[in-house]
């Protein structure tokens, strides 16, 4: 079953690009939500992410899995593939 992956980003954020690159390298499709173009989405993101205000923030099937450092740490432990439904 395909997981629903959402990533809140802004266009000029290098961490956003790194997080999207990791997800792309994993071969998973994701929905990108640009908080710069839709400022109300930043408030939504913060609410969903337990108060986090920095981008990116990544969600899988509605569960917050972290920011750029967080998903790279999960990947280093081998846990990201499992969360993404790849392992």
Structure description:
With 87 residues, this protein is of the alpha+beta class. It has one domain: 3-Layer(aba) Sandwich (Glutaredoxin). It is 40% helix and 20% strand. The protein is built from 4 helices and 4 strands; from the N terminus they run E-H-E-H-E-E-H-H. Strands 2-1-3-4 form a 4-stranded mixed beta sheet, with helices on both faces. The model has no long low-confidence stretch (mean pLDDT 96).
The first-to-last residue Cα distance is: 12 Å
CATH architecture: 3-Layer(aba) Sandwich
CATH class: Alpha Beta
> How many domains make up the 3D coordinates?
1
- What is the number of helices? 4
Strand order of the largest sheet: 2-1-3-4
CATH superfamily: Glutaredoxin
SSE arrangement, N to C: EHEHEEHH
What is the average of the pLDDT values?
96
* β-strand amount: 15-25%
Residue runs with pLDDT of under 50 for 5 or more positions:
none
- Taken from the alpha-carbon principal axes, the silhouette is globular
What percent of the residues sit in helical stretches (DSSP H or I)? 40-55%
At a glance:
With 87 residues, the chain is of the alpha+beta class. The protein has 4 helices and 4 strands, in the order E-H-E-H-E-E-H-H. A hairpin with a 2-residue loop joins strand 3 and strand 4 (63-66).
Task: Give the key terms.
87 residues; alpha+beta; Glutaredoxin; globular
